[in-house]
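WARN retry 2 of 3 for item q-0093 after timeout on previous attempt; input resubmitted unchanged.
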Amino acid sequence: MRRITILGSTGSIGQQTLQVLEHWRHRVSIRYLATNANIELLAQQVERFQPVGVVIGDVQACREFQRRTTFSGRILCGLEGLQEAAADPENDLVVVALVGAQGILPTLAALQAATPIALANKEVLVSAGAIVTEAARRAGVPILPIDSEHSAALQCLIGERRDTVERLILTASGGPFRTLPKERFAEITVEQALQHPNWRMGAKITVDSATLMNKGLEVIEAHWLFGLPPERIQVLIHPQSIVHALVEFCDGSVKAQLAMPDMRLPIAYALSYPEREPLALPRLDLSAIGKLEFEAPDLERFPCLRLALEALRAGGTHPAVLNAANEAAVEAFLNGQLRFVDIPAVVEAVLERMPVSTEPDLEAVLAADAQARRLARIEIQRRRSGILSPG
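OK item q-0093 returned
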């Protein structure tokens, strides 16, 4: 019986992870389920999967859950609770599907307990890639990617020597605004940005996909997962979202992983790695698709991708600052406090103002994250005041 903890069980990835595990109930058990504040859905998941314990990140929501529940298992609260659940020595695998940089400390807690990680949280490796990958190396346990692109790359690399890899190519759908004229970006609404053409995801990652920041974060993540320098990781726009990654080798051969755009496939691969388990998902019919298109990304229309690539090349705390500023800007956009076109502007302004640590430890990364958020909030307020002022 494999024992699994899911941090972020009420989010999109967490719910789909439980859908996959539903088919493997005879072989898995749930240690902990964790949410930030969605205690109604958490209560349903508790009843269905009977975990040993739960974690609720928001302290007020945790108190409310304790007041209302009949659950007799352990109830943990806050970031400390997430770290305790992640470090549980009974875990065989920890799925990290938390949103944002809050996933860093629980991930490190699991690795320090020598527990393998199935990682759906890009920000962990973006902000603290050197620290997290070194912790995994010391523990001798894998970090298994749940992102479809990184899962695809991993599958292409099975059985291959890394020194034979010439290029890793990550694909991007291009999001809902791939063909929208740049002059109309100022009109983009939250509702429009949340209409991804191919994937069903949470709000934050959907906006990141619309700005192409998501793909920039994935490039940074791929650098740490696969040990490739920035110049050997590229991005291609692929509107059909059928080819998820390609690997080119030193002899000119190219491997590609193809599948329908369904996150349950990479989730299942991470959960069962290195084996494959049967999945009753729609099969790929290339004759019905007809053609597969590719094009280079437009870094002028989508400056978030450019900023991410620049942050990776700069190194140090640059990626942590990029990520924190982007999280703040996207949250402001979703709350109606910022225009879509202002998201990259806020990120760039914060990057220009922040001092950089070249070889940061965890304390420096967390400090850079906090300072970048403060500067982002100031920049957001400045831009908001300009938008709302007369004339």
